[in-house]
Amino acid sequence: MAKAPVQKFADHISRVFVPLVILLSMVTWLAWFVAGRLHSYPQSWIPRFMDSFQLALQFGISVMVIACPCALGLATPTAVMVATGVGASHGVLIKGGQALESAQKVDCIVFDKTGTLTIGKPVVVDTRLLKNMVLREFYDYAAAAEVNSEHPLAKAIVEHAKKLRPEGNHMWPEAREFISVTGQGVKAEVSGKSVIVGNKGLMLSSGIGIPLEASEILVEEEGKARTGIIVAVDREVAGVISVSDPTKPNALQVISYLKSMNVESIMVTGDNWGTANAIGREVGIEKIIAEAKPEQKAERVKELQLSGRTVAMVGDGINDSPALVSADVGLAIGAGTDVAIEAADIVLMKSNLEDVVTAIDLSRKAFFRIRMNYVWALGYNVVGIPIAAGVLFPSTGFRLPPWVAGAAMAASSVSVVCWSLLLRYYKAPKIAGTAKEIGITTL
C-alpha cells in the first residue's frame, strides 16, 4: 500500500524530533541544576524531600517523557487505515494513502462514456442493410470479425448475431488476420473476404468510401444518442448497425453533486461527436471530447494537469488504461476490464457512479482529520514541553511530575487514534434529487 506523501512531513519531523528532545531534556536539567547551585532562585522553591539536583532531574525527565513523536507518527497512518476500511465497506477500494491524498485535491474529473456514464451493456436496436445480402449472412461476417474483441460494442453485435442463428449453433466462420484498431474497430478476413467493422474514421483510414445513405444513417443515429457501426465487406459498405447504451439512471444527479463540490466534469470518448453530445446533454456535462483514441485521452488528461488542475479519470476499459495511469487519481469501474482495474488507484467495486462522489468526499473527510491530528500533535508538544521544562514554576509553583507527563504523552497518542477512529461513522452523501436542487433539468 502506497504511503501518503503527507506522511513524509511526519517522517521528516520525527527524524529530528527525538535527538532534539534529548538535547532539550539535558539542557533543561543543566539549566535548573546550575541555577540551583548558583542560588539563582529561592530555596523555598525546592519541595520537601528534594534538593536542587533532584528538582532539576525531575524537570529534565518530564521533558523527556512528555515529548511525543508517536502522535505525529500515528496522525496519517491511523486515518488512512480507517478511511480505506470504511471505503471498502462502501464498495470503494482505495489502494493506499497516496491515492487517498490525491483524491482529496481533485477539482476535475474526466469520465469515459461507455460503461461509465452509460450502463455498459449496449444492445443492437436497428440494422440497415446497404448491400444485397441476407441479414443472417451480414451478421455472420460482423460477428466472426468481432468475436475476438473485448469491446462492449463488439459483444453487443455478437450477442445479437446469436439470436439470428439456430438455437445453440454459435459457431462463426473462421476469422484470419484479425487486427484490432484501438478506439476504431476491427479488421479480419472471413471466408476469404475482407471484413472491416468500426467507425467512420476506420473506414476512411482503410480507403473505403462511405455512401451518402450511410452518412445520413449515422447522423440520424447520433441524434438519438446511438452509436452507428459500419460493416464493410470486400471494401464496400454492407450496412450500418445501430447500438444503444442508455445512460445510468443516477448519472445526472452524480454530475450535479460533483458540481456542488466544485469539481468540474468532462466527458472523453472514442465515440462520434453526435452521440457524445447527446449523452453529454442527458447527464449534464458541457465539456466533451469525442473521437479520442486511448493515447489522446491520456494527452487530454496531461493538458489539464499542465493547466494546474488535479485530475481524476473514471473508466472501465482497456482504452482508458493510459488515461487512468496519467491522471492524478485513476478510478476504475469494478465491472470493467482487469487492465483498467490494475491501472487504477481506486476501484469502484459496485460499479455505482455515486461511489465517485463517495471516494472524493471520504478522502476529503479523512484528510481533514489528518490535518487536525497534526495540529493536535504539534500543539501538544509546543505547549507541553515548555510546561514540563518548568516555565510556569517560577510564577505559579506548578510543576509536571514525570508520571503525569507520561500519562499526558499516552493521552495525546490515544486522542489521535480516537479522532481517526471516528471516521468509522462516516456516511456517504445522499445525492438523490440533487439535480432538481441545483436547478438542472433533464433534456
TrEMBL record:
The record's principal subcellular location, in a coarse class, is membrane
Which chain regions cross the lipid bilayer? 12-35, 55-75, 374-394, 400-422
Any one Gene Ontology molecular-function term assigned to this protein's record: metal ion binding
InterPro entries, per database record? ATPase_P-typ_cyto_dom_N, ATPase_P-typ_P_site, ATPase_P-typ_TM_dom_sf, HAD-like_sf, HAD_sf, P-typ_ATPase_IB, P_typ_ATPase, P_typ_ATPase_HD_dom
Listed under GO cellular component are:
membrane
**Any keyword Coiled coil?**
no
Per UniProt, subcellular location reads as:
Membrane
Which Pfam family is an annotated match for this chain, by its short name? Hydrolase
Question: Which family does the record assign?
Answer: Belongs to the cation transport ATPase (P-type) (TC 3.A.3) family. Type IB subfamily.
UniProt-listed PANTHER family? P-TYPE CATION-TRANSPORTING ATPASE
Q: Which NCBIfam families match?
A: ATPase-IB_hvy, ATPase_P-type
Q: Protein name, please? A: Copper-transporting ATPase HMA5
Recorded source organism is Zea mays
